[in-house]
Amino acid sequence: MAGILAWFWNERFWLPHNVTWADLKNTEEATFPQAEDLYLACPLAFCIFMIRLVFERFIARPCAMGVKIQANGPQKAQPNAILEKVFTAITKHPDEKRLEGLSKQLDWDVRTIQRWFRQRRNQEKPSTLARFCESMWRFTFYLYIFTYGVRFLKKTPWLWNTKECWYNYPYQPLTVDIHYYYILELSFYLSLLFSQFTDIRRKDFLIMFLHHVATISLITFSYVNNMARVGTLVMCLHDAADVLIEAAKMANYAKYQILCNLLFAMFAILFISSRLGVYPIWILNTTLFESWEIVGPYPSWWVFNLLLILLQLLHSFWSYLIVKTACRAISKGKVGKWNPLHVSKDDHSDIESSSDEDDSPKHKHHSSTTNGTNKNHGTNGYLTGAPYPDEH
């Protein structure tokens, strides 16, 4: 184990030439980031998760009731042992052949069985109330952490001159503000990682899991090799759009459609301008060129910049999805009735869409029994797509 740790913490990978871990040990004069500092994030993540439960129960839930969001979920399917076994052990989307077999076995008509499977699938989706509470929690946290980041960064020299991120690197003392900012962000994303296993399982479970792992890795990586100054810029830049998209979700769940459209439009403008404009011009410019000029490259420098470049590629892809959605809505002449969170990229990650289960065309007259599960209408959206970037 000692050999593995020595290999992993190889100074020639993590640090610039002629710099050792001993040079970055804490002294009475200065404090530097230490890998063991990050252990604090684990118990704090648990505390944040517990705070979330209290917040959703005593703050978000009453707010949801105040905007007329009902507590009841989708209509439940009647108990049936045979169909339940097929649903849990074989398939949630039976084909025509299996439907006909079940129809003969149960003496039910095919449409009734289709409706049962649709209702049973909807039972596994979070209710609108649960989604509103979750979005309100995230909105509250993102608003707080973004406000904190702006107030902290406006007093720092590297916000106004990014070369300050590299002067005297890596001998840049760790301030209380940076330490708090990093630990809180890391704890929050750890709590999101944990909560995936306790929340209702969603279609994008694996994608969101990988997204949270990537975010946690980037935060940890930049802290360990003391790229914390530029890391604070990246975190603050990404948190800005998160605030608006969670607010748009809340408006969507509350059926405030005009407000939802307005917030989503603001989110789209901010997302595209910050991720395709500010990020490459401000962040990538300093991590690639200014740091090369002042510090020079070394192994972990290449890895860090590779991750940031990959993030830029994701920014471009997600921006394309947002623009594509907007163009589709405008071309159909339905801007006034457009609900972008039903058809487009949304989180931080997410794509918000209604339930994806409809009867076949010949049975469309039964769709009214599904509590708003038509693919193109209704406000009971479900997070189904790739997460939109929260990576820091």
Automatic annotation (TrEMBL):
Task: Tell me which residues form the DNA-binding region.
Answer: 85-128
Keywords, A to Z?
A: DNA-binding, Endoplasmic reticulum, Homeobox, Lipid biosynthesis, Lipid metabolism, Membrane, Nucleus, Transferase, Transmembrane, Transmembrane helix
The main location class comes to: endoplasmic reticulum
Which compartment or compartments is the protein found in?
Endoplasmic reticulum membrane; Nucleus
- GO MF terms held by the record: DNA binding; sphingosine N-acyltransferase activity
Xref: InterPro entries: HD (IPR001356), Homeodomain-like_sf (IPR009057), Lag1/Lac1-like (IPR016439), TLC-dom (IPR006634)
Tell me the ranges covered by the TLC domain, including all copies: 130-331
In terms of domain of life, where is this protein from?
Answer: Eukaryota
- Offer one example of a GO biological process linked to this entry: ceramide biosynthetic process
CDD domains referenced in this protein's UniProt entry, alphabetically: homeodomain
Q: How does it sit in the membrane?
A: Multi-pass membrane protein
What's the catalysed reaction? Answer: sphinganine + octadecanoyl-CoA = N-(octadecanoyl)-sphinganine + CoA + H(+)
Segments for region (Disordered): 346-392
Q: Which SUPFAM superfamilies match?
A: Homeodomain-like
Q: Where are the transmembrane segments?
A: 38-55, 180-198, 205-224, 260-282, 302-323
KW Membrane (keyword) present = yes
* Residues covered by the Homeobox domain: 83-127
* Bias (Low complexity) ranges: 368-381
Which protein are we looking at?
Ceramide synthase 6
Organism per entry: Echeneis naucrates
